[in-house]
UniProtKB/TrEMBL annotation:
Protein name (record): IPT/TIG domain-containing protein
Source species of the chain: marine sediment metagenome
Length: 151
Protein backbone atom coordinates (compact mmCIF):
# COMPACT_ATOMS: atom_id res chain seq x y z
CA UNK A 1 0.00 0.00 0.00
CA UNK A 2 1.33 3.37 -0.98
CA UNK A 3 0.06 6.56 0.63
CA UNK A 4 0.74 10.12 -0.36
CA UNK A 5 0.34 12.97 2.08
CA UNK A 6 0.16 16.46 0.61
CA UNK A 7 0.63 19.43 2.87
CA UNK A 8 -0.13 22.94 1.72
CA UNK A 9 2.48 25.47 2.73
CA UNK A 10 0.99 28.96 2.83
CA UNK A 11 2.71 31.49 0.63
CA UNK A 12 4.49 34.38 2.30
CA UNK A 13 2.41 37.50 1.73
CA UNK A 14 3.81 39.97 -0.76
CA UNK A 15 3.97 43.61 0.31
CA UNK A 16 4.43 46.75 -1.70
CA UNK A 17 5.20 50.17 -0.33
CA UNK A 18 4.85 53.31 -2.36
CA UNK A 19 5.60 56.84 -1.30
CA UNK A 20 3.85 59.55 -3.27
CA UNK A 21 6.25 62.50 -3.20
CA UNK A 22 3.72 64.59 -5.12
CA UNK A 23 1.54 64.53 -1.99
CA UNK A 24 4.04 66.85 -0.25
CA UNK A 25 2.03 70.01 0.19
CA UNK A 26 2.94 71.07 3.72
CA UNK A 27 5.85 70.57 6.07
CA UNK A 28 3.84 68.04 8.03
CA UNK A 29 5.09 65.24 5.80
CA UNK A 30 4.04 63.03 2.96
CA UNK A 31 1.46 60.30 2.70
CA UNK A 32 2.69 56.71 2.58
CA UNK A 33 0.60 54.11 0.76
CA UNK A 34 0.99 50.47 1.76
CA UNK A 35 -0.54 47.68 -0.30
CA UNK A 36 -0.37 43.98 0.35
CA UNK A 37 -1.40 40.77 -1.39
CA UNK A 38 -1.56 37.15 -0.32
CA UNK A 39 -2.84 37.74 3.21
CA UNK A 40 -5.70 35.87 4.86
CA UNK A 41 -8.97 36.87 3.23
CA UNK A 42 -11.31 39.18 5.16
CA UNK A 43 -8.90 39.79 8.03
CA UNK A 44 -7.29 42.79 9.71
CA UNK A 45 -3.75 44.08 9.27
CA UNK A 46 -2.11 46.71 11.45
CA UNK A 47 0.39 49.30 10.16
CA UNK A 48 3.10 50.59 12.53
CA UNK A 49 5.57 53.45 12.02
CA UNK A 50 8.33 54.37 12.95
CA UNK A 51 8.59 51.36 15.27
CA UNK A 52 6.57 48.33 16.34
CA UNK A 53 5.04 50.28 19.24
CA UNK A 54 3.41 53.10 17.26
CA UNK A 55 0.20 52.04 15.50
CA UNK A 56 -0.50 54.42 12.57
CA UNK A 57 -3.52 52.79 10.94
CA UNK A 58 -5.25 49.51 10.20
CA UNK A 59 -6.82 47.95 7.14
CA UNK A 60 -9.03 45.02 6.23
CA UNK A 61 -8.15 42.54 3.53
CA UNK A 62 -10.65 41.83 0.78
CA UNK A 63 -11.94 38.40 -0.24
CA UNK A 64 -8.68 37.80 -2.15
CA UNK A 65 -6.38 38.77 0.75
CA UNK A 66 -5.41 42.20 -0.64
CA UNK A 67 -5.31 45.44 1.34
CA UNK A 68 -4.56 49.14 0.95
CA UNK A 69 -3.76 51.67 3.69
CA UNK A 70 -2.42 55.23 3.70
CA UNK A 71 -1.13 57.49 6.47
CA UNK A 72 0.97 60.62 6.96
CA UNK A 73 4.51 59.92 8.09
CA UNK A 74 4.90 63.34 9.69
CA UNK A 75 8.28 65.05 9.89
CA UNK A 76 11.37 62.88 10.18
CA UNK A 77 15.04 63.40 9.38
CA UNK A 78 16.28 62.09 6.03
CA UNK A 79 17.38 58.49 5.93
CA UNK A 80 16.18 54.92 5.93
CA UNK A 81 12.94 54.19 7.81
CA UNK A 82 10.78 51.11 8.26
CA UNK A 83 7.02 50.55 8.13
CA UNK A 84 5.84 47.41 9.91
CA UNK A 85 2.76 45.45 8.82
CA UNK A 86 1.29 42.95 11.28
CA UNK A 87 -1.28 40.26 10.58
CA UNK A 88 -1.95 38.22 13.68
CA UNK A 89 1.44 37.16 15.07
CA UNK A 90 3.49 37.88 11.92
CA UNK A 91 5.49 41.10 11.33
CA UNK A 92 6.50 42.26 7.84
CA UNK A 93 9.02 45.15 7.72
CA UNK A 94 9.19 47.40 4.64
CA UNK A 95 12.12 49.81 4.30
CA UNK A 96 12.03 53.11 2.45
CA UNK A 97 14.05 56.32 2.34
CA UNK A 98 12.97 59.79 3.38
CA UNK A 99 14.63 62.48 1.29
CA UNK A 100 14.97 66.21 1.87
CA UNK A 101 12.44 68.62 0.36
CA UNK A 102 12.49 72.42 0.34
CA UNK A 103 9.93 75.04 -0.57
CA UNK A 104 10.02 78.79 -1.11
CA UNK A 105 7.44 81.37 -0.04
CA UNK A 106 7.60 82.81 -3.57
CA UNK A 107 9.01 81.62 -6.86
CA UNK A 108 9.87 85.15 -7.99
CA UNK A 109 10.74 88.52 -6.51
CA UNK A 110 12.66 91.77 -6.79
CA UNK A 111 16.08 92.70 -5.45
CA UNK A 112 15.72 93.19 -1.71
CA UNK A 113 12.56 91.04 -1.37
CA UNK A 114 12.65 88.52 1.45
CA UNK A 115 11.90 84.91 0.53
CA UNK A 116 11.29 82.31 3.22
CA UNK A 117 12.90 78.90 2.75
CA UNK A 118 11.29 75.95 4.53
CA UNK A 119 12.14 72.28 4.33
CA UNK A 120 11.88 68.86 5.88
CA UNK A 121 13.87 65.64 5.79
CA UNK A 122 17.24 67.12 6.76
CA UNK A 123 19.57 65.82 9.47
CA UNK A 124 18.27 66.66 12.94
CA UNK A 125 19.66 69.60 14.93
CA UNK A 126 22.11 70.82 12.28
CA UNK A 127 22.96 74.13 10.64
CA UNK A 128 22.01 74.40 6.96
CA UNK A 129 23.53 77.00 4.63
CA UNK A 130 21.17 78.53 2.06
CA UNK A 131 22.75 79.63 -1.22
CA UNK A 132 21.51 81.41 -4.33
CA UNK A 133 23.68 81.42 -7.46
CA UNK A 134 26.59 80.12 -5.36
CA UNK A 135 26.31 83.02 -2.87
CA UNK A 136 25.57 82.39 0.81
CA UNK A 137 22.26 84.15 1.55
CA UNK A 138 21.46 82.71 4.98
CA UNK A 139 21.48 79.83 7.40
CA UNK A 140 18.84 77.89 9.28
CA UNK A 141 18.89 75.41 12.13
CA UNK A 142 16.98 72.16 11.75
CA UNK A 143 14.85 70.89 14.60
CA UNK A 144 14.79 67.40 16.13
CA UNK A 145 12.64 66.19 13.21
CA UNK A 146 14.97 67.58 10.53
CA UNK A 147 12.68 70.48 9.57
CA UNK A 148 13.81 74.06 9.00
CA UNK A 149 12.40 77.50 8.33
CA UNK A 150 14.47 80.54 7.42
CA UNK A 151 12.49 83.79 7.58
Amino acid sequence: MLALLLTAIPATPALALSIDASAFTTLSGTTVSVTGTGFTASSSVLIYFPDTNTLKTSASTDASGNFYAAFSIGEYPAGSKTVYVKDGANWYPISFTITSVIGLSSSSGYVGDQITVAGTGFAANKSVTITFHNANVGTAETDANGSLTNA
